[in-house]
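testing teh design pipeline on a random one, pls ignore if ur not involved
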């Protein structure tokens, strides 16, 4: 609770490889009353991971897809119908948020209450195109050219090699040194423009005005369409910081550069100095080891959800997928790796 508001964090889940780093600080946050894991996957090993977490930690509440259908990000929109309670602040975190500052919840909930005129509020996000834009125009980061304020900007949003350099720059210069506050850029309202909703907060009563009915792409609707219809803006709180691992097109490059394990090693070292965090991390790793030892058995279980047939892919895409993996990676590198020059290391 905070100033008579219930605080509910939720995550559209998910992937245990990322959530092993996301879950511990959420469980350790006293301000968080409940953590809703939106079970949006057919992966039975991940589902077992969520079930065992819920058994171990009463703060965790599993929320099943209301329509009984899971289709990747296309089935996330139905979960918002259960995010409409009065006197409640909801905070949605992507399942691949791999780090956030210790004061994040208190800062963002206070910012949410102090700025009720905005529809959504977001922290500053490492690896989020508009957040990178803010770092750029505030001279916090040096890039080879000016990149425009576009949610899906080709380099700063889609390029895995750029994302790897960005994460390494952040870890080496700010996370490992504990000086991430040097990146703060203050408050920035934004209107009639889409942004990646890696971490957003809203009032339950605001969502209740349209019964949490979110048609189609939840990011486009909640960041752009609905606030524009309501005559409202969204806002970045640039004095609170998180790190988001990857967008889909970035993942191969980031995995090749071993970025996720770098975050994992840093977090492990940080959590060793906090008894509660150390215990939670140990428990979660034990759960992961247990379910992975049973992965063959779990994978054979039927999904609790209906599956949606995939759309037919174009001839070019089908042909590309038939190429050997090393050839596909080489083409990807040729197309993207040299599209930018990351100046500041």
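output:
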């Amino acid at each position: 609770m905070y100033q008579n508001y219930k605080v509910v964090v939720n995550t559209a889940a998910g992937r245990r490889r990322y959530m092993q780093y996301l879950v511990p600080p959420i469980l350790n946050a006293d301000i968080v009353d409940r953590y809703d894991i939106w079970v949006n996957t057919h992966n039975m090993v991940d589902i077992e991971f969520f079930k065992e977490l819920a058994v171990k930690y009463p703060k965790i509440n599993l929320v099943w897809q209301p329509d009984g259908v899971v289709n990747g990000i296309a089935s996330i929109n139905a979960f918002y119908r259960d995010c409409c309670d009065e006197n409640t602040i909801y905070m949605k975190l992507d399942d691949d948020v791999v780090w956030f500052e210790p004061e994040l919840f208190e800062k963002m909930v206070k910012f949410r209450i102090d700025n009720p005129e905005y529809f959504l509020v977001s922290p500053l996000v490492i690896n989020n195109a508009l957040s990178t834009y803010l770092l750029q125009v505030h001279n916090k980061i040096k890039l080879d050219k000016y990149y425009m304020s576009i949610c899906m900007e080709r380099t700063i949003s889609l390029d895995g090699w750029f994302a790897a350099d960005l994460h390494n720059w952040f870890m080496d210069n700010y996370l490992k040194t504990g000086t991430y506050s040097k990146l703060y850029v203050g408050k920035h309202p934004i209107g009639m423009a889409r942004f990646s909703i890696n971490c957003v907060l809203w009032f339950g009563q605001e969502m209740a005005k349209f019964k949490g009915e979110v048609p189609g792409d939840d990011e486009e609707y909640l960041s752009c369409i609905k606030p524009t219809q309501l005559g409202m803006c969204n806002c970045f709180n640039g004095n609170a910081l998180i790190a988001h691992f990857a967008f889909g097109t970035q993942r191969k490059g980031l995995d090749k550069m071993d970025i996720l394990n770098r975050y994992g090693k840093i977090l492990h070292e940080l959590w060793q100095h906090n008894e509660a965090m150390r215990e939670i991390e140990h428990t979660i790793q034990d759960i992961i080891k247990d379910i992975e030892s049973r992965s063959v058995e779990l994978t054979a279980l039927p999904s609790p959800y209906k599956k949606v047939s995939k759309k037919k892919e174009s001839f070019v895409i089908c042909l590309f997928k038939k190429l050997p993996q090393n050839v596909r990676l080489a083409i990807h590198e040729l197309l993207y790796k040299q599209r930018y020059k990351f100046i500041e290391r």
